[in-house]
Structure formats: structure tokens, C-alpha cells
Model the fold of this input.
Amino acid sequence: MNWTEEDLKQHLAKRTTKCKSPFVIEEMPVKAKAIKLDLSDGKNKSEIAFEQHLEMQKRSGLIDGYGFECMTFVLADGSRFTPDFFIIHASGSVELVDVKAFFKNQQKVHVEEAAMVRVKVAAELYPWFIWTQTWKDETGEWRSRQFLPRGAK
Done:
């Protein structure tokens, strides 16, 4: 079936749902209503701070881009793991980062055992990515722990 420009306009006018894909270029009809702008997009304070850090790296050319919670990995027994950030480095390597909070009063990183296990399992099942947990320490510097598959150096 060959569509004319008019057929396409009529089809698009009928659509009422908004596509979440960043790759869709077409305009979608939107009903007028008040919009609440949430700059955090569901991020906690540590994730917001890390995103600011990534934005500086992107502007300086160290990384080509990043995304927040844009990939979910299936682990053992059907459990799932969604890293906080997906980073494409200028070298072409891909890093998946789980951002953790640092408790200044306790001088330690808050990492639950289940979160540690998920990252370790993901590193085993998907070894072609760089897997890290990162946190901002008491001095304000970003620290990280990298997870390698067993047998990797």
C-alpha cells in the first residue's frame, strides 16, 4: 500500500499515545495540560551528582555519551538488573555504572549484598561491558570498584 502525504497526516492525527523512543522524529498530538518539570527524572542525589560529573566529561570529550537506566539485563533465575548509567567512552568501550551513596557519618559506601551480587553476576554473563559501582567519597572525589569476570585480568 502506498500512502500519500495526506494519508500520513490523517494517520498521525488519530494517534493519541506518545512514543517514548528518542529516535522518533514525528510530532505527536498532545492534549494541553499543566506540565510539572522534574529535573531529577527519578534520580537520587548521588545519581544527580554523577550525571553532572558525566556531563562535564562529555563536554571535555572524555566520553561520547551516556544514558540513565536505559538497559535492563536478565540474570540467573529470571531476575533483572538495571544499571544506573550506560556510558560510551571516547575509546568506544561501554561502561555500565551502579551509583552508590557514601555515608559520611559512617565513613562507608552503602552497598547491599544483593546489589553486589547482581553486579558480579552481570559481569559474568555479559563480559564485553565494563561493570562498575561508583560513589563520591568524603573529599568529594568519585571512587569506583570495577567487576571483572572470573579469570579476567
About this structure: The chain has three helices and nine strands.
